[in-house]
Amino acid sequence: MSAIDRLRDMLAASRNAVVFTGAGISTESGIPDFRSPGGIWSRHQPIYFEDFLASEAKRREYWRLKFIVDQDIRNAKPNSGHLAVAKLVRSGKAGCVITQNVDGLHQASGIAEEQVIELHGNTTYAACLDCGKRFELAPIRTAFERNASLPLCDRCRGIVKTATISFGQAMPAEAMRRAEQAALACDLFLAVGSSLVVYPAASFPVLAKRSGARLVILNRDPTPLDPMADWVLHTEIGPALTAAVDADGQ
User: Are 201 and 132 members of one domain?
Assistant: First the structure.
């Protein structure tokens, strides 16, 4: 039995799967893995949340870095891996997607907003840290490029930041709660494109496995959780997932 056939059979046997995605699924859309060697965090120091709050200079540096990397995300489109995941969700095979990614490509692939659990937020828009009002990025970019002006909320004058979780910022409580519930309830946990080294996100496959789910890891490189998985595939994500999902007739 081939690796793809095995994955297909495990998907066919599942009645309540969860898909968990990391940066590896989006690199095939041209979005670099910021944490990998050569990624932006190896070339620029990340701005910690407490520094962002305390210093206008740090906030300017934050937005400057944001717009350096923004073009890759703005130009990215869902790839075959995203579309295969969307097919699993659309068929009812998978009830939700838990993602470490902030690029919004799962939603762009056709998955409903309420079925995507974003552990690290979303970088395609901004929000006020005080009242939560949402802001689109284009006007912020225009103003910043004109005179490095920092965005403030026009409703409460609060600080505006991309809707992502920065280093040192608390994880979103509601997303974490929903992810935990999904991991506890699923019968198959499919981890796709994640190095499974960033916690607390990487605790969810462990939780699912310990709660009785089968654990499948699809990633180009080995992960620390490979030894506990029921099935591991080290290969390109898009082609493998597409073949497995299409073979399953979803």
Answer: no
